[in-house]
């Protein structure tokens, strides 16, 4: 099978663990919704078995919408989602919960993602029950799931309120992994945690991935966090892929002006360096996130881009290989100068 030109390939030889093809998601209904720009606009990527793909972009760029479309929580307007070659694009949530054990999720907020009225045991046993695993076998799996994320087996009889944010996120990870999935969508799994807890949870995720050969779609707004866990990065802006490639190349030699702006905006621990980065970003002439809406036909980054010319307004740039990354920019060759 040959991947289309704008697809982000995982591997030429194996069936990808997850395939997303030409995904379009529009919210709402009626003429107004049809005329509004889609939240996700023609996104394609693959994730190989055992690989982590980082999906990064500012708030509102469409990351969670992609995650929701993959998980069946939002019906795509167009495009396809396949897990190990199986097309699950239009499969109902009910059917997925009993048939698609391969695909699970961890959400951002450890406080709202666990039901406060249920014990941890009840929370962990529920997905197993849907898969037909019950009784002592389910309890055994729930206990071993808790131990695999570094929590004692007796946590099973306690309630979410008795745990810290980091512990709750470990429980959410145990719930995601209890059915032995192959693909896990992680939607900003550490964004709500303090820095030292973030590092612990990221290390745990890396260990579990490597032990079990998991594939992760790892969603974050911070390139630095993505870098820690991912092999490849997809940079998203207004629902479109701006740049993609090996994580080191995207971080160290970005070829898209938006990636440059995102890198400059990433938080760093030293205030002086932060101020220098902000000054450099302003000197380069980047607009802010609230800039005017772009034209529907051209590059979405036009209103914020210091390199924009007429061709950028008129033609949407396709993804093409420039250096070590694929970038959707007419003037990618000039980006080094920014
Ligand atoms: N349920 C919804 N109804 C209407 N618009 C939505 C809904 N969820 C998200 N959006 C819009 O879709 C766009 C992408 O949102 P989202 O996928 O949540 O972005 P991100 O996760 O990158 O912050 C935003 O403009 C957001 O306002
Ligand atoms: S295509 Fe033009 S407007 Fe878009 S990022 Fe490249 S230079 Fe900027
Ligand atoms: Mg989000």
Automatic annotation (TrEMBL):
GO terms for molecular function: ATP binding; ATP hydrolysis activity. Residues 18-263 form the ABC transporter domain. Keywords: ATP-binding, Nucleotide-binding, Transport. SUPFAM superfamilies: P-loop containing nucleoside triphosphate hydrolases. PROSITE patterns: ABC_TRANSPORTER_1 (PS00211), ABC_TRANSPORTER_2 (PS50893). SMART domains: AAA. InterPro entries: AAA+_ATPase, ABC_transp_ATP-bind, ABC_transporter-like_ATP-bd, ABC_transporter-like_CS, Oligopep_ABC_C, P-loop_NTPase. The keyword tRNA processing does not apply. Gene3D superfamilies: P-loop containing nucleotide triphosphate hydrolases. GO terms for biological process: peptide transport; transmembrane transport. The keyword ATP-binding applies. Belongs to the ABC transporter superfamily. This is Peptide/nickel transport system ATP-binding protein. It comes from Petropleomorpha daqingensis.
């Amino acid at each position: 099978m040959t991947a289309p030109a704008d697809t982000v390939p995982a591997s030429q030889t194996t069936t990808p663990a997850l395939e997303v093809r030409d995904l379009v998601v529009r919210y709402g209904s009626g003429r107004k919704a049809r005329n509004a720009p889609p939240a996700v606009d023609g996104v394609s990527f693959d994730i190989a078995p055992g690989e982590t793909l980082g999906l990064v972009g500012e708030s509102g760029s469409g990351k969670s919408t992609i995650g929701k479309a993959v998980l069946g929580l939002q019906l795509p307007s167009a495009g396809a989602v396949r897990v190990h070659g199986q097309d699950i694009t239009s499969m109902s949530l009910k059917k997925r919960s009993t048939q698609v054990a391969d695909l699970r999720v961890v959400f951002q907020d450890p406080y709202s993602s666990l039901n406060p009225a249920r014990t941890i045991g009840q929370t962990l046993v529920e997905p197993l029950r849907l898969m037909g695993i019950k009784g002592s076998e389910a309890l055994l799996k729930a206990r071993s799931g808790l131990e695999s994320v570094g929590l004692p087996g007796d946590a099973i009889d306690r309630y979410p309120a008795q745990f810290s944010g980091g512990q709750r996120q470990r429980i959410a990870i145990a719930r995601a992994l209890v059915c032995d999935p192959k693909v896990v969508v992680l939607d900003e799994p550490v964004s709500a945690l303090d820095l030292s807890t973030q590092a612990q949870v990221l290390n745990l995720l890396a260990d579990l991935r490597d032990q079990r050969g998991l594939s992760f779609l790892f969603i974050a707004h911070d390139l630095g966090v993505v870098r820690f866990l991912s092999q490849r990065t997809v940079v998203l802006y207004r629902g479109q892929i701006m740049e993609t490639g090996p994580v080191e190349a995207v971080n160290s030699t970005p070829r898209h002006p938006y990636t440059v702006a995102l890198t400059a905006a990433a938080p760093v621990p030293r205030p002086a360096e932060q101020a220098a980065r902000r000054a450099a970003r302003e000197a380069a002439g980047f607009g802010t996130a609230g800039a005017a809406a772009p034209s529907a036909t051209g590059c979405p980054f036009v209103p914020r881009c210091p390199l924009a010319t007429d061709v950028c307004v008129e033609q949407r740039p396709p993804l093409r290989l420039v250096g070590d990354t694929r970038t959707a920019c007419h003037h990618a060759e000039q980006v080094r100068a920014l």
